[in-house]
Batch of 3 targets.
Target 1
Amino acid sequence: MSAPSVSIKLSYREALKQSLRDALKNDDRVFLMGEDVGRYGGAFAVSKGLLQEFGADRIMDVPLSESGFVGAGIGAALNGMRPIVEIMTVNFSLLAFDQIANNAATLLHMSGGQLNVPVVIRMSCGIGRQLAAQHSHSWEPLFAHIPGLKVLSIGTHEDARLMLLTALKEPDPVIIFEYTAMLNLEGEVPTDTISVDSIYAKVRRTGKDISIITYGAGVYKSLAAAAELAQIGVEAEVIDLRVLRPLDEKTIVASVTKTHRALLVEDACQSISVSSEVSARIMEKCFYELDAPVLRLCGVEVPIPYPKHLEDACIPQKEQIVTVAKKIVCHD
Amino acid sequence: MNTKITIENKTSPVDQETAKKLLYQMMFIRRFEEKSAELYTKEKIRGFLHLYVGEEAVAVGIMHALNPGDNLLCTYREHGQALVRGLDPGVIMAEMYGKQEGCCKGRGGSMHLFDVSRKFFGGNAIVAGHLPMAVGMALADKKMKNNQITCCFFGEGAVAEGEFHEAFNLASLWQVPILFVCENNLYAMGTAIRYSHAQTNLELKAAGYNISAGSVDGMDLLAVIQASQHAVEIIQQTGKPYFLVCNTYRFRAHSMFDAELYREKQEVEVWKKRDPIPAFSKLLLEHQLVTEQAIKELEKKIDMEIQQAVDFAEAGTWEPIDQLTNFVYSNSII
Ligand SMILES: Cc1ncc(C[n+]2csc(CCOP(=O)(O)OP(=O)(O)O)c2C)c(N)n1
């Protein structure tokens, strides 16, 4: 994939919206369905204005019935459409989990290869807005556990602008995680939206001393930590996994083989996390390349509490990333 | 010859050839299921096996009113529908054996028969899980301005699930052309309908979603045909959903792991007196649409065809283990 040559500054929200607009323009079979995506403008204003532009047939408000409308999206995909289904936030996705895990993920296999389910299911997620336990889940690992799904995580503005368009070229069900904490952040996005046609893990910053492997909300945090580490002479490489299933083992192994050290960073709680899997792959594929044990900085094993200071303490912060990375590199 | 058969106050024009075909379909399902039970005890078929014995008039009657292009989604008790849809009995049997000559290369088994070329979308084993998908398929047809309808079968157990209610609301809200068929055989595994539904007249539930509904004696083939033709007509005219409850009974256990502790043998015997196959045969004999001799010949033909299906499955082959992870993903770009 060639690096986009020209870029402009957009908010993460605007980048997501432009990708939706492109998707709707590019293909008549595409439609967006979800709770409050139309008249309300999207719970986070991501689809604001699209109803006026594309009409109610293509921007469909649906009732509160996650299992029903996700299932309907799967059915429409089976029958020739290209639905983009929005689950307002990941926290409500368990009501549709049966449809995702038992239908979307299994039909290709169970039918002996006859049925494709080209549905894209987007959900916003992330922690940091003091919404307490029921509205602060990081369930990327839950979805990444399921064979048959492809699971994408949008950790940068570039991906906010482009990832959906690639996902829509997929014949298989794709889950996309978007991060509400980033919606207002501005960042660089490429103006060329045509050349992107494959998604692998991406090296967001190169370095030779340690690989910081992360995704989603961890990407900018890790990049900030890497910038700070650079000031004290530690050159960290930051890998944005982007695809949580299937994992891009090659990029991980290549980086660790170069830096000989790895720190894994994510918001989801540590046990049985994406980092658990990445760590295991490193042991299996390049153990002898390691100069230090692989360490993880993940979410604390606790339902997320409401007070800001406790909420912040639940997930890895930039300072911790710097401290732990230093510790790994300096063997102390 | 277009003979009108009249029972009580119902009339249904069925010509001789159609009458014979319908009888043949019901007899074929019955024989196929009995053979499957036998093969299960011989451990040729494994896993869960749910038989349709007693309920044949429902699948045969409903599907008589459908067109081949209509989408069909069923439960795990779907051999009958699959056979009527024209899936090859040998290919179905091979699937139940787990052989790669099966309709899903053996990966689904008895509960997961699929044939996309015949618009046969399962074989779905999560109770009520296919209802939302069925609504989505109908929605896609509406969006693409296709003329076909979607038909979705489920048991009365499914009617208690949330997905039933979500699907009904969506179907009505979006006004999509779908025929919901409840095969009310009075038991969800071992739970009788009176223990699971506060309202046991299931068709009344449709009113809450502004969906037209009807119910019919599911042991009476002609009544089912009449009711489903009426339903399909309404759907075609209005583009809206319709809910048809077919009151029926399964003569055999829920699956092969069922000691049937929850119902009296006497009750089963009473229902067996209403077996749809002898009832329809009798009717055809009375109207001289078939002869005893012709029925005997049908039986013979069916036995032979089922034997061929079993032979086909027996001769089938096991998929090599190195192909295990096929069909998890398509050739793709991520
Ligand atoms: C969601 C779900 N819960 C439980 C089961 C286990 N189960 C399989 S069949 C069945 C009974 C379903 O009864 P009904 O819907 O009336 O259909 P029938 O088997 O009588 O045709 C149950 C409880 C299941 N497969 N799916």
Target 2
Amino acid sequence: MAVTTLAGRLRTAAWLGWQIESNWADPLVFAIYSVARPLATALILMGIYWAVTGGHLQRDAFLLFYIGNAFHEYVLRLVVGMGWVVVEEREEYETLKYVYASPIGIFTYLWGRSSVKFAQATLSVVLMFLMGWFVLGLRWDLGVVRWGAFLLAFGIGLVAVVYLGFLVAGLALLLPRAAMTMNEGLAVALYLLCGVIYPIDLLPRGLQELTLLLPFTYWYEALRRFLIGHGASERLSALSDGQLLGALIAATLVFAVASHFGYLALERRARKLGRLDQTTLF
Amino acid sequence: MSDPRSALAPAVETRGLRRTFRASRGGAEVLALDGVDVRIERGEIFGLLGPNGAGKTTLIKILSTLLYPTVGSARVAGHDVVLEAVEVRRRIALVSGGETSGYGILTVRECLWMFSQFYGVPSQIAWPRVDELIRIVDLEEQAHTRINRLSTGQRQRMNFARGFVSDPEVMFLDEPTLGMDVNAARSLRAYVLHWVREKPGRTVLLTTHYMAEAEELCDRVAIIDRGRVLACDSAPALRRQVQGGQHVELEIRTPDGAGAVLPGLGDIPAAWGAPHPERGTRTLKFRLPPDRVLLPVLRRLEEQGLLVEGVSTRETTLEDVFIAVVGRGLDEPEASG
Ligand SMILES: Nc1ncnc2c1ncn2[C@@H]1O[C@H](COP(=O)(O)OP(=O)(O)O)[C@@H](O)[C@H]1O
Ligand SMILES: [Mg+2]
């Protein structure tokens, strides 16, 4: 009973997400957006990388950041998307209060609503890999891929991403205007902090310690290690595979618990201030 | 699911509910609810009657777990609205009238079905219920129309139907017929009455600033003004409170047709009724206590330069109760200062 109810609610929220998304997205626009945007980022980065390394483009180093950049799509889509759900539901559809007053539970609702974002990000990632492989010549020996460990790390990291989304959703309840820019800012901060486009070893020492508290750092490293055989950071290469996975799991757990309570605190504040049904933007 | 503690508890019970809002830009803090104690039994249609800004919506928001009280507590179906919000949400539904919310891309039927799924209503129950509600709010022709193609009135009716898809124990209707055309409002009121009587234990808390709606639907009515419940009883009992004397309506010629300034009648509270611009007059209503006569009142008006063109007396209505209790008419702005 409880499980089928939960499944039904998730499915319904997911269905709504797809309806809303497929409404504005003309398939062609959708495809261009899904491919062109991440690809353009990759190419710009390639240019920067080229310039920084004085034209000695090391294929291996480029591959490392290409992979990081591809998986960063999940952070961009899911986190920004979840913050946006809150803003859009409250300000545009004016339905957020009815969702809140219903027993669906905001976590279930946001999980469901963001499934379409997950699908979009996955599409982007797959396309980027195909493009990298066939067009940019970013190939490696597929024999080194450890699928089990990769999928495990991928799944755990996604949990961390979704919990970051909850936190952003909570902020969006309180600060709708700021949340819009903050969402994107957060994604950029992770981009720079967690070793997406350069190894964390390049960060100043204090920042390195900070970044080692975040699950995303281990996530990007683990994805690379299990896909192409090695990661990007010297410091993290000291960890065995088991230690790396262990660190990812532990950091994700801590982060998820902190985000969960962080979200609840933000929601309580929003209910205190009467923000659940305020329309302030449109 | 059927928790005996919850089933026995009153539908709504509030204790010393107080809610303030922070001032906007240096203004004074707004006191939206000022110590509200109400108890609503299962099976009742309970009306909250009050002018704009009385605090009706604030109370509904607190009871539907959207807003915290500043002080005091509230229980819905036996569960605390702050501490047990999840339990409360399983048992309630909320409809705000005068609102055109909705996911524009969904059709009416899809939207109603979706909300039934948020509440976990099994499909074999949900679909027939959705279709029945669509018939009741007269949207059969629009069942497969996207919400963003609906007129404002149609959206309001859909929103009303949405509230009923989960078959809640306690239904909160916040001015459900606000701005609706007369026929639609009448049929929705009839449905509310039918819905409550159909199954024992169903409860409705309805806010309104239409006297007739409160009179027609509600088993009990609370008169609320400036965040305080000033009277609470059945409509006949409330009327008895102000009985005695006569209800007088004078048709008064107003010099500029406006008559915004209420003439002084000594200690008798009076209120303006509807203006009649075609005749250049306006109705002035008051209750004449049993120990008083009308003539001095008319003279007093004459002294103030007002010409009385017609006099009629009639039976007590809830509006008279309202004037007696609150000290002014329902549609009148508060005197400033
Ligand atoms: N979010 C808010 N911020 C500031 N003041 C508010 C807010 N919500 C309501 N109020 C004020 O509280 C009072 C009661 O409002 P409300 O409950 O909406 O009254 P009603 O529904 O009876 O018209 C009004 O003076 C209103 O301006
Ligand atoms: Mg209101």
Target 3
Amino acid sequence: MQKLIDRIRELLADGTVARVLGWRTGDLPYNPEPAYFECEEELQDFVYNGFCGANLSKYMIEASRLEGKTLVCLKPCDTYSFNQLLKEHRVDREKAYIIGVGCKGKLDIEKIKKQGIKGIESISGAEIEEAAESLTIQTIYGEKTCAYKDAMLERCHVCKGKEHQIYDELIGDSSDTTDADRFAQVRRIEAMSPQEKFAFFQNELSKCIRCNACRNVCPACSCRKCVFDSTKFDSSQKANADSFEEKMFHIIRAFHVAGRCTDCGECSRVCPQGIPLHLFNRKFIKDINELYGEYQAGEDITADTPLTHFTFGDAEPSIVGERG
Amino acid sequence: MSIEKNEEFRPKIVAFCCNWCSYAGADLAGSSRLTYPADVKIIRVPCSCRVNPMFILRAFEKGADGVIMCGCHPGDCHYSTGNYYARRRMTLLFSMLDFIGVENGRTRVEWVSAAEGVKFSATMNEFVEKIYSLGKNVRLEDLRCRS
Ligand code: SF4
Ligand code: SF4
Ligand code: SF4
């Protein structure tokens, strides 16, 4: 991290960039937050550790309208989002100075708490200098340990790889964290009976409090006016009134990002209710891959997007029932 | 004494028909005196591509038991390509509805040209039959909208 900070200082001092988009230490040991840094003193709070899961690419929409260049730190998965935004003309490449930061997997505090570790005072092992096998956690009930792998975000187990898709320079090492199949759970649900599927989603979606965090954090949800804010939309700005509204919100949210969602995993990370939103996104991704050819949003910005292109021989919608 | 009513189930079917082909096909079915159940309510849209996923969900919300979308045959779209986009969209949406447990038979897409009055009537008869066998839609309805 020292190398990263030194380089950021340099670029800020020599005027290459007007500001830095990074992470600032939070009020707890595990909640660094996205922040702008404009001068040397502010950089004292800069941090890059295992809890910096937040994807900063969406902030570049705003930063693209500011005077001068913005230095932005992007993890490998974040660069897909940036690329996708570039493709959609939402960000200005000229206004960004991208430092591709290394990644050894990011942590999910909820996973740590689920292991019964409460009253956390400090966590060591989350600094990413050398790959830590385990975390040592000081709590008010004494010292606890937890394997790094067991505390990792779901998305890091299915990481798309540690290659940055776009950058100006790279700093820091990465290590492979992929140990699961991204579509395994989708397949498991597909194999269920309609009753079981319905019960599964009813149970998950009924937890939704419509805080809209999943939409707000999503780099693909970049519309300046969102359907969920429209006063004509009957479930805007309020909790879901019934199971229909829950399903509608989730289907429409996922549909609006279908073909553009890079599977960056931010929506699932921020959901306060722990709803596996990635299941919806990945169902669309899986269908697109199977029906219209392999497609990874944010990889090749010149590629045809699946929902704005077609072929004459595309499958008919009846395929949904036919493939069983 | 109970006041249980044993009313017969009559499905509500919403059919989105494009102005240029399927709506004309429905017209032809009528003028050829072909019959199809009155449970089918047709909503005319300029093009099948106009149907966004919300339309389908809304129809279910308001109490439809089945929703069918009809458009020009691929290659015959009045606007050249609208139905090709619609085809991808509906495929993904129907697949998603299936994924969350809404019975797949409740949604359908059929391409009906202005000359296919017979196909229109046959399709509607078949679809209504299917919805009869599936029964009332309870998985995607807004109870407040049921009368
Ligand atoms: S998905 Fe991959 S690149 Fe992204 S935070 Fe996880 S391990 Fe890092
Ligand atoms: S973040 Fe979670 S609780 Fe909030 S609106 Fe999205 S799914 Fe619902
Ligand atoms: S839907 Fe979720 S995974 Fe997809 S781009 Fe948005 S935040 Fe990322």
